[in-house]
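call fold target=Queuine tRNA-ribosyltransferase
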Amino acid sequence: MFQVLKTEGRARRGEFSCTHGGVVQTPVFMNVGTQAAIKGGVSADDLREVGCQIELSNTYHLHLRPGDQIVRKLGGLHKFMRWDGPILTDSGGFQVFSLASLRKIKEEGVYFASHIDGHKIFMGPEESMRIQSNLGSDIAMAFDECVENPATYEYARASCERTLRWLERCKVEHDRLNTLPDTVNPNQMLFGINQGATFADLRAWHMQQIARIDCDGFAIGGLAVGEPAEVMYEMIDVVEPFMPKEKPRYLMGVGTPSNIIEAVSRGVDFFDCVMPSRNGRHGKLFTWEGTVNIMNEKYQADERPISEHCSCPVCCRYSRAYLRHLFKADEVLALRLAVLHNLYFYNELMACIRKALDEGNFAAFRAQYSGQLEKRV
């Protein structure tokens, strides 16, 4: 399933295989299509064009709309959205954090009030596994609690213990579902999630505990939720020694291009973040020179592409002036073009990281770009 081809320091160059889409080259950025679509009018065909290897969708949102039973009836998420590559589904655990005012956590699971119409929803480990089995994703994430930042030590410890018990329940139910004769994807994998807020001892203890459970990969969750970047890096440093070396490592919800480079240097293989699409929809564009705010007046008559060092479909055809005009005129095309560019950049960033690792030049790549990509053009 996963093979580390070579290393440079703690950075890993690998390959990952699953039922759909052949071999994924890692480190990899997963493009976020929360509701089976990338916000900004981007289709599955567009994802192929911009170099996407893995698409990510959300269990909670698809459970509400259109309903996981509907998706199952239509042949699973791959057929539903016409994407033939790998798909990872988040468990709904992040909504335990993001919908704090609409939920109540119990040992059996979480009681939600739907953010759409207020109707009552219950989701526990078994329900999350059944929903993800209905969706037929290649990777199912364990149901966990992502705690708020800052959290008290006592609450974070209790949450870690509960998330461990939930993972054990997820594993049992996931294994059962994969044996059913009518399951959508009997080869679906399960990734466990490390929690512990920003407490180093909890992070280390929790990782040691979940590593004893036979998951197909492990994620670091509950970071990039407001803590400084240096604290996030410290938590990765604490957790990484206890993560099984033969299995993929996933840093959830991260992040900026610099965050990704720094996390790769600390041994992370998988990433996802809404940043390229969300920032794109607000006119913030990523380039090798730094970030561009296309709304700035200085681009009003600028005939250059977003970046002269980019080969994306947008930079090959359109000017900064045109894209700025589309945003100012509230044209939907502005969102689509900006998101396409940003997704292309993120996927190209990962390809360049992999090339640097292949050639033994990652340290030099990190030194050149980790700071530069944070700058504003």
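return ok
The two ends are 41 Å apart (CA to CA). The chain is about 40% helix and 20% strand.
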